[in-house]
Amino acid sequence: MKRSDYYALLLYFMLALFFWGLPMKFDFVNRLNISGDVAFYLWSLKWWPYAISHGINPFLTKAFWAPFGQNLAWTTSVPSIALSMWPITKLFGNVFSYNLITLISLTLSPFGIYLINRQLGLKESSSIFGGLVFFFSSYVWGQLLGHLNLYIVFIVIFLCYLYVLRFKCLIGRKTYIILFALLLAIQFGISNEIYTTFVVFSFFAFTILITLYYKNEDYKWKIVIMGVETISAVFLSVLLLLPYIYYIFYGYVSENINNNSFYVADLLNYIIPTPITWFLGDKSLSISSKFTGNFSEEGAYLGLPLIFIVMSFIYMTVKELYKQNKMYIFIVCFFMLSIILSFGPYLRILGHSTIPMPWIIFSELPLIKQALPTRFTLYVYIAAAIIAALWVEKNKFKNYYKYMISGLVLFFLIPNLSMYKGSYITYPDFITSGFYKRYIGKNENVIVFPTYALGGYQGSLWQQKVNFYFNLSQEIAGPAPKELINDIKVYSALMNFFYGETKPMLNNEVKLSFLYYILKCNVKAILIPVDYNDQIVNDLLRTLNKAPINVGGVKIYEVNPIQIKSLISILREDYKKELLKIYDTLFSSAVSYLSDGQPLSNLYPQYLEEHGYLDKSFGYETGPAMNWTR
What we know:
α24 packs antiparallel against α26 (561-595). The longest helix has 35 residues, at 561-595. The chain is globular and about 80 Å long. The relative contact order is 0.10. It is an alpha+beta fold. 55% of the residues lie in helices and 6% in strands. The strands form 4 sheets. The chain has a 5-stranded mixed β-sheet with strand order 8-7-9-11-10. A two-stranded antiparallel ribbon has the order 1-6.
């Protein structure tokens, strides 16, 4: 590398240190933007070294969803990061490892874009600008809210760099295949979703290239040979990943883990920012709140200045189509294709589905259907960053206008750092002083409130801190076990308190289900921070008919299976009486309704409530039959 390349690398590192360090108050050992997802990544950074060093199968664990367990091949447990950071985690802790890999990716990702631009023959200044566009990309800063596996993307960018080096014959065939396979395998261990979509988008890229160069025999065969080499590298990566792939099919999940028609890029998100962007982000909330997904998955925003650059470059390319370097045409085509695919199965505008889009073909295919189209904005931004650098170099604007527009591009993309709250990671004395050993046996199953479904993170955070001393009978990642999903007795408690993101409701059915859940999971204790005060959770725990023990900042509910069975018998009788009362109320309301000569077609509780045959407190929205008609 040249000296100027090191300067560019230093620039990106300083930006990473400032923009990530500021919300962390530059305390990378103790502070993190903590959430349920982030807590799971901290858990994973500890789990993989722990499992391997203790001779435990790292893929199949009963540390959570106990006693049934989870297949980590179907979670985002980032084994590549956990294993590569093992020595750092051991010396400085997993919070530091998390922050360090974040800084590394924030540095190397734009540097990779810079290197690609340099290989395309661009000057240092233009290449640096392209890297800056990617550094401030809405995709990266959206995922930085908590998706470690999705914002560590420097591997993908260096894979693109390998494409360029091989196309220019700057590396040999064997070197290309081996390096490409190794990087792909590492990427699989960071995010198998991005691994898969990268392979798919590479196929699209080669298709575009062959189409553009089909009349040029030399280039056409060069691309075909390079495509064969890439396929060889993919197969080699699969061989390296066989143990991992085995467990993917061992615990194959056929249903969609996330809704691939919900987590899509809204058309207007490309021009309307969300609160993750500093300039106009909060002021645009009345519009951006209509986008589907959440802020971390709404990273399509390009901003008007960058859109102007892209449109200007497309105009330059089309205007002199036959004179242009075909690589420019390729980048434009790839950019446009990436945007179209990011819309998902149906084009959404302000959250409303409209016309079918090309991704509908892939949205039901095995494995690839698990990919969320909104995350294809990664490829949009890779292309946009290269286009931005090319535009700076190739446009005929005066330097004054060129610098002004480039400055506006970055200004419009500056992240809103107030979204990234660097919380000081603390643990109660119950955990740090070892009090937990007095009340919980080794490998016993516990529940920790608030659960992941309620926005909590304490369960996974505490468990990794005590080196997996106890098991958790709750979600911290991945799909729920079929043993719970298929059990009608525990299903209500599962879906209200333990799985997914939910706004829980509480009635006698849920309380009864909660008791069955405790028995089925063989839970020995329930833990809750003393400073956590949620009325619904408090009411749920009153079902245990037992006062908690306060120790070291934690309230402990010790569970006695015999007492739980007794409570089930009592509550079941109360629930039966409640159901009979509901039935009597509905029956008498229906008789009154039909006596008035009303049609059978409208005989349902919502209509009865709305027209006075049922009291509104009965339960269409609230009350004893809460939401049961939906």
